[in-house]
């Protein structure tokens, strides 16, 4: 264990996987999950958020997001948490300093990168927080398991910073793999890893195409509208959420049985239900790419995340995947295949 205020004599790197939300996304929002219980099925993919912690050579405190070219350098004191593009970095550092270092503020460089932009619908912001927490866990030898890391990342992002969103992203990033996750009252969460036959997982992976719309959306507007509808007991919003939860259970059965056609049908059904929960989930760009994909042989699809842009996912015959990918790219999307990952957040020390 590193004592309070000490800086380890090695650097630490960490990574946490991003995820595809296959079904149930939105039911992990309060107040829905507190009252009715939520259920989500997601799978982590070969795109990551990365974090790196090292001693600052000049005794300062530096926060960097290298992928967006933003840096803040200051004296090593407890930093403010709100405001700016590096609020997540500052909030994690401050929480660690107050919780485990007795308020001591070591001179560190805390840097991150991500394989997808914020607002992509792949849970990149939450995965970044998980990666930061995981890096500090190893750097300071903190007694935290995956549930602890996910809960802490949720608390920092949603409670301390007040950023709108649900709970699935943090748990997907911490645990990794294909998971059916239940969200219950009093912030209880149960992660159920699915033991999917490798042949079924290979077939599902071979049938998927993901496509970035080119629009990084601010999910807060959509999520706040969903929460408002749930708080006001809007019948349409509630009905949409109930359907999304049912689809998570149906998706679980389809994946475990290797029924890819049924997976596609559930994706389409979930897409229609999601559009019932708030305005702005579908945009002209999203609709155009969606119609194109269906015309090029996609069996079904939906947005990953809150909607309004970000990534779309489609399920098609693996023999048709190349043609579908090419058509989406020609139409201005950024489409590609995707691979599942089975591991969650991990960190390792880097000898000097």
Structure summary:
With 352 residues, this protein is of the alpha+beta class.
Mind sketching the topology for me?
Elements: E1 11-23, H1 32-36, E2 38-55, E3 61-65, E4 70-74, H2 87-100, E5 108-114, H3 124-139, H4 146-160, H5 168-175, E6 178-183, E7 189-193, H6 198-207, E8 208-212, H7 219-231, H8 235-257, H9 260-274, H10 284-295, E9 300-304, E10 311-315, H11 321-330, E11 334-336, E12 346-350
Parallel strand pairs: 3-5
Antiparallel strand pairs: 1-2, 1-12, 2-5, 2-6, 3-4, 6-7, 8-10, 8-11, 9-10
Helix pairs in contact: 2-3, 2-4, 3-4, 3-5, 4-5, 8-9
Index terms:
23% strand; 12 strands; disordered N terminus; 352 residues; 11 helices; four-stranded antiparallel sheet; globular; alpha+beta
Strand fraction band?
Answer: 15-25%
**Helical proportion?**
40-55%
Q: What overall form do the CA principal axes indicate?
A: globular
**Main sheet record:** 8 strands, mixed
H-E order = EHEEEHEHHHEEHEHHHHEEHEE
Structural class designation = alpha+beta
Q: Low-confidence parts, pLDDT < 50 over ≥5 residues?
A: 1-5
Rg (CA only): 20 Å
N→C terminal distance = 19 Å
Q: Mean pLDDT across all residues, rounded?
A: 91
The helix tally amounts to 11
Number of strands: 12
